[in-house]
Amino acid sequence: MQFKTNTSPFFNSSNNVNGVMLQVLLALIPGTLVMMYFFGWGILFNIILSMFFAITLEAIALVLRKRPVMVFLGDLSALVTAWLFALTLPPLLPWWILLVGIFFAIIIAKQLYGGLGYNPFNPAMVGFAVLIISFPLEMGLWLEAGSFVDQSYGFIDSLKIIFGMNIAPDWDAVTMATPLDSVKTGLLTGVDYNEIIQKSHYLSNTLNNTWMWSNIAFIAGGVWLLYKKIIHWQIPVALLLSLLFFSLIFYLYSPQEYATPLVQMLSGATMLGAFFIATDPVSASTTPTGKLIYGASIGAFVYIIRVWGSYPDAMAFSVLIMNMAVPMIDYYTQPRVLGHKQKVDL
Amino acid sequence: MTSSTTTKTNNNQNRKLWRFHGGVHPPFHKEESNQLAVISAGIPEQLIFPLRQHIGKDAEAVVAVGDIVYKGQVIAEASHHGLSANIHASSSGKVSAIEEHVLAHPSGLKGLCIIIDTDAKDDWGDCKLEPYPEYQNIEVSDLVKRLQESGIVGLGGAVFPTVVKVAGAVDKPIKTLIINGAECEPYITCDDRLMREKSAEIIQGIKVIQQMVKPEECLIGIEDNKPEAIEIMRKACVGDSSIEVVAIPTIYPSGGEKQLIEILTGKEVPARGLPMDIGILGQNVGTVYSIYQAIVEGIPLVSRLITVTGNGVQKAQNFDVLNGTPISYLVEQAGGYTKMADHLIMGGPMMGFALKDDNIPVVKATNCILLISTTVLNESNSAFSRQPTLPCIRCGKCMDACPVNLLPQQMYWHIRAKDFERAESHNLKDCIECGACGFVCPSHIPLVDYYRFAKSEIRDQAELQRKADQARQRHEFLAFRKERDKREREEKRAAHKAALQKKKEAAAKAKAEAGESGSVATSAADSKADAIKAAMQRAKAKKLARAKEAAVATKAENAND
After folding, report:
1. Interface test with B, best of A6, A337, A345 (most B CBs within 10 A)
2. First and final C-alpha spacing in chain A
3. What are the tens digits of pLDDT across the range B497-541?
4. Which domains does chain B have, with CATH numbers?
5. What is the pLDDT of residues A310-327, one digit of tens each?
6. A330: closest CA of chain B, how far (Å)
7. ipTM of the complex
8. How far, in Å, CA of B111 to CA of B99, rounded?
9. What share of chain A is helix, strand, coil (3-state, %, to 5)?
10. Residue A128 C-alpha, separation from nearest chain B C-alpha, in angstroms
11. Which member of B349, B425, B427 has the closest CB to residue A10?
12. For B234-250, what is each residue's pLDDT tens digit?
């Protein structure tokens, strides 16, 4: 009697790549809902448009590269990239700017490097970085956050703005810079930090409400990922502790000049970055010690770029910088193997 | 890496245990075969004995085609050229062939086998060894000799000749003797059944080893998914304070020797070292039972317990199987195949290997014959067959699962790039090929295949390198020799020339002197002529002597004829 042959192990656990990606998508839901609550339909349209473009572009790239299209679309990684990318965009961004960004994310940063698993840089962050450098004005225009019910623009209006129809909105009336941006501008003009916050109803509102609550919602998603063992604890913990450390040191040194640690921790892309972006396994460090170094370095860069750099938020650049250091970090942080005295024979 | 936990099991044991890094929990499927008592598989019509069924050199056949052999007769002796073990006929009959036969090897490799047509008498003849029921009074050297004779190898899977392992530990300070009853591979239950049914014998086997290596303590490690075995073994060693049965948490691969040592003692076996180096000797329970049989009953290693299981057989069962029994016969004893028999696996699903054909004998290393359908493999993951291998996303699940704390994702990356040097610097050699990484991989990458491939490539490269080095050394030596010979010749020539020159000078001087007195010259010429004559005479004498010698030699030779 003849039998089929293959090789051990013959068992495989129930892990799948698309299962991993699906958990990430699920974990993004709470943060996304909170952002939708404050910023309106624009957030959802960004996500849907990004996903649509991402899938289309990925499919085209796969066909051109002669790879099995359905298999690689089925891994859901393009959707994760698209969703993360969309969350970094201001609502009501014109569709073609979004397309430029997602094109760089999917085609340039991912498929040209070889597709899933081969991209050295975080695709979503590449897309974001391209946009913030190329379209700083459009990327800086965040709608004034309100609650979902008293949004300035409803479902249809939002769509019309995104596709450039009908209304040319009076941007100045409805949009605001992000709080991190405003704080930084204020500090640059020599105004005391507390004054800046107190003077602006908008700032105190967004800081204490909008960004804080969306960050908290992203923490919830991150905890879910940790619970599901999709991500390791090292990167988020090291990143947040490092950011906390630097912001605390400088805040204690001069509370007038530097924002409180709480502002740093709970505004902008801090939590989204710590739990969802820096933890992208493909482009992040992979060893336990390496993850700590990687995360802590991102935290430090985030603080440096936020405070002294010329861009309001810094997660994208910090992640991209550290992506470059990953091969070296991984090589020098190999764990000690059973029965070996020192870590690695270098 | 080693985190300690004090485990309290349902048996109120309170011994400090350690935890090794990683590990996985595959579906264990033990209940299919662990309920029924062991039965004998009987005597097949034909027994096939590969000459290689242990680590090291092939044994050397000492029977010829047509010989009648008895049960327990040595049919192949341990090679004298290195590590090896005797092979015994497991039943009586006639040697019908000594030829190449497909081996129990994943590649369908062939190897020299002794094939015996059995006569159903199972006749021991006078091949049974003298039993040592009073082994306490037997010299250690005699016990070692007995282990050597009886061809026992490690039955846990490593098939390392036991005598080498035990004899090596006789003179070493051994603190802990560890008996491996973990049996962590899914489906396999033969050690479980052995412990339940032969606990007294196993304890006696332990006593033999204790007598030989004199350990301070003896620990029997059994996974806590075998509560019956734990209880029975505990009962068997009641009143013996030197032996302790330790229930360990069920996690694959706790039965790996280094892993079990880590669990029980918290010690790490040094890389490329042996457990002996840290005062530990490990033995599998099956091996211990064979030691008992060889010493106390005088029975060499002719049979072992094998689990036949999976949804591909009618009736899963543990069998006492004669060495050399063909798998097809063994499956018949288990009621035959079902329709589900897609895969034939020797060993367990984590580390075993698939065979193409069932006309293959079981060997000393065989602990399980697993017949399984593709659907069962898929049950563990519905996407297993449908979803192709995806690229590595570096999620690190393999790293978390690795019991040796390697970075499987990094080694995979370097091996794909054929950068074996880098893979080696990530300690590829320490990989025990347990398959935990492949088990958890969400991209379904056959990681262990890559490691096996890289290891063999590295071995080949090292061999090539060795040959190249040898060739280069030879070449360098040749060049050196040529150079040296040339130099020596030149030196000789120069010396000769110098001597000649001196002589000439001397002659010229002499001539000059002769000019003063002619008689001296004549005498000098005479002396030269005399010297030549004398030399010729000497040569003649030598020639004569040689001729005489030759004549004597021929005579002697003729006389011998």
Report:
1. A337
2. 51
3. 999 988 888 888 888 877 665 555 555 666 777 888 888 888 888
4. 388-527 (1.10.1060)
5. 877 789 999 999 999 999
6. 9
7. 0.86
8. 8
9. 65, 0, 30
10. 22
11. B349
12. 999 888 889 999 999 99
